[in-house]
TrEMBL record:
Top-rank EC class of the record's enzyme: isomerase
Function recorded in the entry: Catalyzes the interconversion of L-alanine and D-alanine. May also act on other amino acids.
The protein, known as: Alanine racemase
Cofactor(s) named in the record: pyridoxal 5'-phosphate
Amino acid sequence: MINARWVQQGATGSVAHLLIDSRKLLFPPTTLFFALVTASRDGHQFIGKLYQQGVRHFVVSEKQDFTSFPEADFLLVADTLKALQLLASRHRSNFSIPVIGITGSNGKTTVKEWLHQLLEPDRQVIRSPRSYNSQIGVPLSVWLMEPQHELAVFEAGISRCGEMDALEAIIRPTIGIFTNLGSAHNEGFASMEEKLQEKWKLFAHADIVIYKRDAGLVDEMIARRGAISPALFGWSFDGDGDMVVQVSAKQETHTLCQVLTAGDRFELKIPFTDEASIENALTCCATLVYLGMPADTIQSRIGQLHRMAMRLELKEGINQCSVINDSYSADLSSLAIALDFLSQQQQHIHKTVILSDIPEAGLSPAELYERIGALLKHHGVGRLLAIGPVISEYQQVIEKYGLPVVSFLSTENFLQHFDELSFQDETILVKGARRFGFEAISAQLEMQVHQTVMEINLNAMLNNLRQYQQLLQGGTRLMAMVKAFSYGSGSFEIANLLQFHGVDYLAVAYTDEGVALRKAGIHLPILVMNADPAGFDALVSNNLEPVIYSLRLYRRFEAFIRQEGIPLYPVHLEMETGMNRLGFSRQDIPELLQLLPGAVFKVQSVFSHLAASEDPAQDGFTREQAGRFQEYCDQIAGILPYPFLRHIENTAAIFRHPQWQFDMVRLGIGLYGMDAAASGKLRLEEVSTLKTTIAQIKSLEPGESVGYGRRGKITEPTVTATVRIGYADGYPRILGNGRGKMLVANHLAPVIGSICMDMTMIDITGIPGVKEGDEVVVFGRELSVNAVAEWAGTIPYEMLTGISQRVKRIYYQD
Ligand SMILES: *Cc1c(COP(=O)(O)O)cnc(C)c1O
């Protein structure tokens, strides 16, 4: 089926699970591993480990030394990703059920999740887990189709021309849905038309495409195509189309519409008021109309839609706990994803899962809870708190996997016993079907936060890491700079992610930062740039590796190590090449070379720091720095009997000077989404979003003033909003009096008057629909921290690291 050559046949038994990530192995004997090769990782490296863990079926694109794996099957193909896709498309061809394929720029995942909610009461629906919509996500989703399913809903996302054909061949939608055309991923396409054409390829074999008539590019393209297939089902607000919608009233919590279709007219109450949700709900409504659902059923089901919290959030909890809140859905595949996220967390030894009944289509409860028991055990869960009549009944099935289960018949029942459950110093995953109302549980577990938060997008960080990994020459290692609370974005939460995704080294500025990481279970090697003699004890007992940058520090640390009777301790040598901050200078080197051979130190690396790697005008100087560095390294290599790592590059240099990557690079600001080399060529995503909320709105008249010193002068009728952030939170006071702006309902609102310690007033005159309690973005994806830093006359590094620790960090994965 996948055009493979069977190069070794050693296994027996059949295959049920596909695996592309060795860390996610669950059922070794029935797993088929695809050794994918990407710019940052080669799956073939993990074959040995997987074999040891019991995997026997492999699809590879490189010949292996098969003799070390006598009991395994090896299928050799030219391209393992293509093979995965081919297998999924063959699997797809076994089914003749309706398959809905969704694409468009925004709203794909929401529309998919909502359609699932809307259709699930009558039929067994299979859908893509979360936003599995990529070249890898789509085949893995389609592989989940099983005989009992009656309808499938899959989403397809592309970022570049030429990608959709492959996805179409796997999904083969019979019903297409096009959500809308927006600016996402514009960089991958020559024009909006080209992007639209590419996306539309998903519908090559569909019977029908459901879309919103937009009086723009979509309608133009359709008009040009004429009456060729597929057929169309268009909806619009303007009186034209197969379904026409008139918004009759917008209220505080919902929107009322009149819906007119070929055979019917009915009123629809959409439980949202924002444009995007209304549009997504109407796309779903059009689909239901097309599928022939009676109007009264459509009315009642759409009325019950709820907003998707499509991300896993990690928050600080009571009693030193960390809480992962994932109570928007409960099915096996999303449970597996949430458990993966849970197992990445190393900060607490104990892991607890609070889980409701799972209304899983098509599996007997005995089999379902059997699988859940295996999953929980595999992910090292220490205890299960089970809520619901069914899961309680099958408690023993899960207990067989050696994990203590306490069960409760209902959420109320659980809450009554909350205090006896003594949550302490553990990571808790809260996962329940919507009707169990687990919000009440997470509210009890989470710490109250003041309403200014910094949200850290872990997917964005991972994307940035991958972008830089792609720039590395083969074999170059990567050290991630997590100093200063990971450039303001967190500590162990970030380190956990980096550790999980194969970073080689971490670096912090001071010993206590390294100690905090060790306490949170980070076991990667950690370099400490500025180790103070007062902290040598903590340094050594936490296995942290200091930078030795002067002869004085060399002697002091050596004395300490000898006094402790340690035979050999790992250190890093920093060489001065032009930054003039820390490091051995040329005149120190003869003495250093004399000391080293007899030292109690194992030199792990020799490094230096570039002063102006981002600046083309300084490339001559950078070259001189690199030259000196090479010279010093050669001298040290001449006297040390073992090899060491050499590194000099920071973020900007990785991109601009690939020739000096040596053995390792030190990635800092790029990881957090800043293109330090201003290359414009990397697809970096902003990681941190700083948000606050409106405490009060005021209407002011000419002659009044705002804030201290009456510096905000009112000359025309003005509406102001007081927001909950001030200079004590790290919002620079220099941004007062119009220099800074915040984003309110997609409009820029300038600061009015001087910034106070804990509050700031902004001018929201003319911005429609703003209420007290609304969210305000201080910086983030839509308002770059670069821009805000520029207004404040500083650099993003200072802006990010200056955000006070009193601002709570929330970590999430889409
Ligand atoms: C901070 C730092 C880096 C990272 O610099 P970026 O510009 O953020 O990439 C690298 N090396 C050293 C020694 C540093 O102090």
